[in-house]
Design brief:
Elements: E1 9-12, H1 18-29, E2 33-38, H2 42-54, E3 59-63, H3 69-82, E4 88-91, H4 107-132, E5 141-146, H5 150-153, H6 160-180, E6 185-192, H7 199-202, H8 208-212, H9 224-235, E7 246-249
Parallel strand pairs: 1-2, 1-4, 2-3, 4-5, 5-6, 6-7
Length: about 250
């Protein structure tokens, strides 16, 4: 293996399914070497890695919980060993839970939601900035945080804790973008809307997108690949004067 990858390197947390997997595959097609983190689904992670390699790029699947500081450190150490660089971090890992009214939420559920959806991205960004920042002799880079339209809409009667955790991620995006703007790092946020992914099953309603699609101005749900294209555009040189920006991929909702 090369001590330093000659291709740009992207890390996608939660990269074994849904938007993360679509982003990994598209990134490989665009010339990135790809690292993905995942928590439990080895088969899905290996399938994504195989697709990356089939596109002629190097792949590194790493089992890591992004809400665990020790595992995050180990994840970035693995990237250092395999690639010797990181150019783009996509903070995509997230969890949702069963639809519920606010007064029925348990403390344990809220704690887990914020640990993974808000604190996890901060932990990953800390590690990325230490490697990207000009202050640390880095070459610069891009951090893309994956939020949700729910941060704007609130998700009443369904997932107010999820929406709140994504709102926290958006505030972090604004602050970090300003903090590292003169260190060669851009920080942006993508807000997916109703996208056909497995996440809705985790919320107890696999067919949720079809139920709500009439409320979307474009009258359809989105595909993971449509979100992936937005992510990789923001990560590209075409977006070189864009930071602290939010890009909705919501069909107009």
């Amino acid at each position: 293996m090369d001590p330093v990858s000659q291709a740009p390197v992207i890390l996608i947390t939660g990269g074994s399914r849904g938007v993360g997997a679509a982003t990994a595959r598209l990134a490989a097609a665009q010339g990135y070497d790809v690292a993905i983190s995942f928590v439990s689904n080895d088969a899905a992670a290996l399938a994504v890695a195989a697709d990356v390699e089939a596109a002629g790029r190097r792949a590194l699947p790493v089992r890591a919980d992004s809400a665990d500081p020790a595992q995050v450190s180990q994840l970035f150490a693995a990237i250092d060993r395999e690639f010797g660089r990181i150019d783009v971090l996509v903070n995509n890992a997230a969890v949702i839970a069963q639809q519920s009214r606010m007064e029925d939420l348990t403390f344990e559920r809220m704690q887990r939601m914020f640990a993974i959806n808000a604190i996890g991205p901060i932990l990953c960004a800390q590690q990325a900035v230490k490697r990207m920042s000009h202050r640390h002799n880095g070459r610069g880079g891009v951090v893309i945080n994956i939020s949700s339209a729910s941060a704007r809409l609130g998700s009443p009667n369904e997932y107010v804790d999820y929406a709140s955790s994504k709102g926290a991620l958006e505030t972090f995006t604004i602050g970090l973008a300003k903090e590292v703007a003169r260190e060669g790092i851009r920080v942006c946020c993508v807000r997916p809307g109703h996208i056909y992914t497995e996440m809705h099953a985790s919320g107890g309603e696999p067919g949720r997108v079809d139920r709500v699609k009439d409320s979307i101005p474009m009258a359809r749900g989105g595909q993971p690949e449509e979100v992936a294209r937005a992510i990789l555009w923001l990560a590209s040189a075409d977006a070189s004067f864009i930071t602290g920006t939010f890009l909705d991929v919501t069909g107009g909702k």
